[in-house]
Amino acid sequence: MKMKLFILILCTIIQGCSKLDDYMLGKDNTPKPKELKQIKDKVKVEQNWTVAVGKSSKNKEYLRLKPVVKSGIIYTADASGLVQAVNKHNGTMKWSTALKHGLVSGPAVAGGYVAVGTNNSSLVVLSENNGTKLWQTKVTGEILSPPTILGGKVIVKTIDGRVYAFNAADGKQIWMTEHGSPSLILKASSSPVAMGNLVLIGFSDGKLDALDVKTGRVMWQRSIAYASGPSDVERLVDIDADPIVENNVVYLASYQGYIGALSLSDGQFIWRKPGSVYKNMILSGNTLYITDSHDVVWSIDKRSGQVNWKQTGLKARVLTEPALIKNDLVVGDKTGYLHFIDSQTGEIIARSKVSSGVSISPSVIGRKLYVLTDNGMLNQLSVS
């Protein structure tokens, strides 16, 4: 596994880092962003409170550590190994648990459990109520995407293309299936997504598998993107954004591949268009919102794939995936700015600054934003 990641970094250096995002490699080789244009804010953003929930890190890896807001509590996971539960109203600490190893994914919160993936290829499950460690188990590779807690199971995908299901109560393995992975992959990953009795999982070879949630058996498989090009870097087609399922249609995207809508009835594409995405998308009404690997924000009609608008003014700022707050989008960037975008027109309508870079998309509840910064500070902001 170490060799696989080393090859990724080595090949990218040889290629001049021209096609891979700096956060995927832990080194900032992106062009210097253009100076931001002055704008007149059309929405008001106020900071209510801020609290430390982790440590500042110089590591610039892209990690799936988005806070989860549930029942008045914000659950956070920090790269240093700190998992915390914070009152969403005032920022007071409910509990804090320090793990021995750093974290690369999570938290997932459901059914009384909090699940995270560590940098030593382990899955750790804590009590949602008090943070007590309930169990921990080793797997064959790092869990780069947040686990999925479903029907008393914790389901995870590892970097080497295996999928595991564990009993959420005691950690006993229920099943394991092996898909495999190419020798060169991005250090990013999509999470398992529930669909009735199936679990949909995107892999680094551009394939989407549907597994039986009870047994792990592959029920069907679709090829979403196909590797092409003379170099291994050009042939990367990882599915790293979580698939979105709605009304028997799955919306998905791959790196250096496609953005598209796939019918689950016949396995055929309803539409697809070239695109390069490794961060999660969001679906609202008839619109799919995307931040692509070039830091362009897109609005796409989910029915036809027609582009409603695209915002190109934030290139090289290393944007987060978008979040939707009422009728506006918000994306964070590596310099600590939050950019608010009109979801109907794509116009940048406001900007706000926090204490450090924002690598993780804000979590939204009503008109409140919860923003975790790179220096380990959790911020609550109000938008009006």
Q: What does this entry look like structurally?
A:
By secondary structure, this protein is mainly β. 3% of the residues lie in helices and 44% in strands. The chain has a domain at 33-62 and 317-383: Thrombin, subunit H. It has one helix at residues 2-14; strands at 45-52, 68-70, 73-77, 82-87, 93-98, 103-110, 113-118, 122-127, 133-138, 148-150, 153-157, 162-167, 173-178, 193-195, 198-202, 207-212, 218-223, 244-246, 249-253, 257-263, 269-275, 282-284, 287-291, 297-301, 307-311, 323-325, 328-332, 337-342, 348-353, 363-365, 368-372, 377-383. Residues 1-26 have low confidence and may be disordered.
Q: What is the averaged pLDDT score?
A: 89
Q: Can you count the beta strands? A: 32
List segments where confidence is low: pLDDT < 50 over at least 5 consecutive residues. 1-26
Shape: globular
- Structure class: mainly beta
Identify the strand order in the major beta sheet: 1-32-31-30
Annotation field: number of helices: 1
Q: Which architecture of the domain at 33-62 and 317-383 would the CATH scheme give at its second level?
A: Beta Barrel
Helical proportion, percent range? under 10%
Q: Please give the alpha-carbon distance between the first and last residues.
A: 47 Å
The amount of beta strand, in percent, is 35-45%
Indicate the CATH topology of the domain at 33-62 and 317-383.
Answer: Thrombin, subunit H
Radius of gyration: 20 Å
Q: What is the CATH class name of the domain at 33-62 and 317-383? A: Mainly Beta
Q: How many strands, what sense, and barrel or not for the largest sheet?
A: 4 strands, antiparallel
Keywords: Cell outer membrane, Lipoprotein, Membrane, Palmitate, Signal
GO cellular component, one term: cell outer membrane
GO biological process, one term: protein insertion into membrane
Organism: Fluoribacter gormanii
